[in-house]
Automatic annotation (TrEMBL):
<feature type="transmembrane region" description="Helical">
    <location>
        <begin position="175"/>
        <end position="197"/>
    </location>
</feature>
<feature type="transmembrane region" description="Helical">
    <location>
        <begin position="130"/>
        <end position="155"/>
    </location>
</feature>
<dbReference type="GO" id="GO:0055085">
    <property type="term" value="P:transmembrane transport"/>
</dbReference>
<keyword id="KW-1003">Cell membrane</keyword>
<keyword id="KW-0813">Transport</keyword>
<protein>
    <submittedName>
        <fullName>Sugar ABC transporter permease</fullName>
    </submittedName>
</protein>
<dbReference type="Pfam" id="PF00528">
    <property type="entry name" value="BPD_transp_1"/>
</dbReference>
<dbReference type="InterPro" id="IPR050809">
    <property type="entry name" value="UgpAE/MalFG_permease"/>
</dbReference>
<feature type="domain" description="ABC transmembrane type-1">
    <location>
        <begin position="84"/>
        <end position="299"/>
    </location>
</feature>
<feature type="transmembrane region" description="Helical">
    <location>
        <begin position="278"/>
        <end position="299"/>
    </location>
</feature>
<dbReference type="GO" id="GO:0005886">
    <property type="term" value="C:plasma membrane"/>
</dbReference>
<keyword id="KW-0472">Membrane</keyword>
<keyword id="KW-1133">Transmembrane helix</keyword>
<feature type="transmembrane region" description="Helical">
    <location>
        <begin position="88"/>
        <end position="109"/>
    </location>
</feature>
<feature type="transmembrane region" description="Helical">
    <location>
        <begin position="218"/>
        <end position="238"/>
    </location>
</feature>
<comment type="similarity">
    <text>Belongs to the binding-protein-dependent transport system permease family.</text>
</comment>
<keyword id="KW-0812">Transmembrane</keyword>
Length: 312
C-alpha cells in the first residue's frame, strides 16, 4: 500500500511540475476551452427538451415530461422518411463530389510549374470561403433567375426556354452541391497542400532518377503521402456532412422543392421557430446527432481496418 501511495504522490508531483513548467501554453489554451464549454457543451443541457412537452414560459419545472413521445411524433410523421432520405442523399452528394475535389485541386496546385499561376489559382479558389452564405445564396438565386439570370440568358442564346430552376425539385441537389463546392473547395484544399509540402522531396528526386514520369510520381508518391490526412479529414467531415449546411438550404429551398431539399435540420427549424413545438424540434435534432455519431464511429472502424489510420 505504501508503494502505491508513493507512486500516486510522484505522479501528482510530476503532473504539477509539468503544469507549472508549461503554464503559458495552458493559458493560451484556456480561451478556446472556455469557448467550447460555453457554446458547445453548456447548450447540450437543453437537449432535455426532447423529453418534455416544453413550454418556454414555464421552463422545465412547469413542462410535462413525456419521455420518448416527441421521438414517436417525429418518426410517425410523413416528414420523417422525406427528411431522413434528403439528409443522407445530400450528405452523399457532398462526400462523393465536394470531398475529393479539394484533394485534386491541392495536387494540381502543387504540380503546376509556374509558381505565379499556382498562387493565383490558390487565391482565386480560396476567396469564396470568405463570402457570406447569405450573399452566396443571393448570387445563386440571381444567376438562375428566369428573367435576368445569366444562366437563362446563355440558354436563351441556344433557343432553350427560360426556366426558374429554384422551384424544380430535381434541380435542387445539383445546384446546392455546385454552390457548396465553389464556396469550400479552395479553403478545404489548404490542409492537403500543407500535407503535400510535408512529403520528402528526395522521394521525387529518386523517382525522377528512376525515370518515373509526372503521373507515376503522383500515383506512387503524392497520393500515398497524403492518404493519412485524407482519411483523417474524411472521418472528421462525415459527421458534419449530416448537418448539410442547413443555413444555405433555408435560404434556397421553396415549399415546391421540399421533396428533395427538406432535411432534418430544416424540419427542426420549422417545428421549433415557426410552429413553437420545441420538444419535437429538439427530438429531431437529437436524432440527427445520433446518426452523425453512428456514421463517425462506423467510418473510423472501417478506416482502421482498411488503412490502419483512425482518430482513435
Amino acid at each position: 500500500m505504501k508503494k502505491k501511495d508513493e507512486l500516486i504522490v510522484r505522479r501528482d508531483v510530476s503532473l504539477a511540475k509539468r503544469l507549472y513548467k508549461c503554464w503559458p501554453l495552458y493559458v493560451f489554451l484556456l480561451p478556446g476551452l472556455i469557448w467550447y464549454i460555453m457554446f458547445c457543451y453548456k447548450p447540450m443541457i437543453g437537449l432535455r427538451m426532447a423529453f418534455y412537452d416544453y413550454n418556454i414560459f414555464r421552463g422545465f419545472s412547469g413542462s410535462k415530461f413525456v419521455g420518448l413521445e416527441n421521438f414517436k411524433i417525429y418518426m410517425s410523421s410523413p416528414d420523417f422518411g422525406r427528411t431522413l432520405k434528403n439528409t443522407l442523399m445530400i450528405a452523399v452528394w457532398q462526400m462523393v463530389i465536394c470531398f475529393p475535389v479539394p484533394v485534386i485541386l491541392a495536387i494540381l496546385i502543387t504540380e503546376m510549374k509556374s509558381k505565379i499561376v499556382s498562387k493565383m489559382v490558390q487565391t482565386i479558389s480560396f476567396l469564396p470561403h470568405f463570402i457570406s452564405t447569405v450573399v452566396v445564396c443571393g448570387m445563386v438565386v440571381n444567376f438562375l433567375s428566369p428573367s435576368t439570370g445569366i444562366i437563362n440568358m446563355i440558354l436563351g442564346k441556344f433557343g432553350i426556354e427560360a426556366k426558374y430552376f429554384m422551384v424544380y425539385p430535381q434541380y435542387f441537389r445539383p445546384i446546392y452541391t455546385i454552390m457548396t463546392l465553389w464556396q469550400t473547395a479552395g479553403f478545404n484544399a489548404i490542409v492537403y497542400i500543407a500535407a503535400l509540402m510535408g512529403i520528402d522531396p528526395q522521394l521525387y528526386e529518386a523517382a525522377i532518377v528512376d525515370g518515373a514520369g509526372r503521373w507515376r510520381r503522383i500515383i506512387n508518391i503524392t497520393i500515398p503521402g497524403i492518404i493519412p490526412t485524407v482519411v483523417t479529414m474524411f472521418i472528421m467531415n462525415i459527421g458534419k456532412m449530416v448537418k448539410v449546411g442547413y443555413e444555405s438550404i433555408l435560404l434556397l429551398y421553396e415549399p415546391s422543392t421540399y421533396a428533395t431539399a427538406d432535411v432534418i435540420s430544416t424540419y427542426s427549424f420549422r417545428m421549433g421557430i415557426q410552429n413553437g413545438d420545441y420538444g419535437v424540434a429538439t427530438a429531431a435534432g437529437l436524432f440527427e446527432a445520433v446518426i452523425a455519431l453512428i456514421l463517425v464511429v462506423a467510418a473510423n472502424k472501417v478506416s482502421k481496418r482498411l488503412t490502419e489510420t483512425a482518430l482513435w
